[in-house]
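Take a sample.
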Amino acid sequence: MSAPVLMQPSIGVGAPLTGSVHSWDISTGVDGPGTRFVTFLSGCPLRCLYCQNPDTWLRSNGSPMSADDVLTEAAKYVPFIRASGGGATISGGEPLQQPQFATSLLRGFQGLGLSTALDTSGYLGRLASDELLAATDLVLLDIKAGQPETYRRLTSRELRPTLEFAERLAELNKKVWVRYVLVPGITDAPEEVGAVAKFAGGLGNVERVDVLPFHTLGQSKWEALNRRFVLADTPPPNAEQVERARNEFRAHGLVAY
């Protein structure tokens, strides 16, 4: 197979093509369908209590990289990724904190013949241009909680921007996978799960919902940053709790895993 042609991304004269990149990785079955080249961008406005990667909160913690640098790395894996039916995902942190750079990457990945996915909380959805969304085949949308007060407690931010972004994606008929982290004592309450399930079920463009059990694997990163991990004593949900949440989503016509 001939080497893929690396197309020069372009989002307009004078637009920056350099961003803060935390890392990149190859994953399967976690960040979208198939094997994915996943680029983690630095910077996030949320402060989620269960965040696995608090080291991505600040843009200054990343390394400056050009879009071409990232795409050149991704190009090495294109045959392998295509064979798995995979693609490329931009994650973080919060990729919409660097919208122009994210657009460059998404367009560049498409130029490599890869399907694209954007992993986002949606909180900065107002920064997602029509061009960025046109270069996005799938949105992995993290809806953290169903009630505004719970969302604020969990993230230190407001829920409404995420819901507005989800509604915009529905108007565009953009394919969405909803992600919902199940935290015992916080997001496993029936009113939380039910609110998200009702909202997602009414959008019409949600292909699936992934109910993700809370875990403490990121605790060591919090400690390395001299931050207190307040959920250290919170147990992961048991199988019954996870299935109960999945069934709530299914009751609203959604495919849930």
In short: The chain has a mean pLDDT of 93. The chain is about 30% helix and 20% strand.
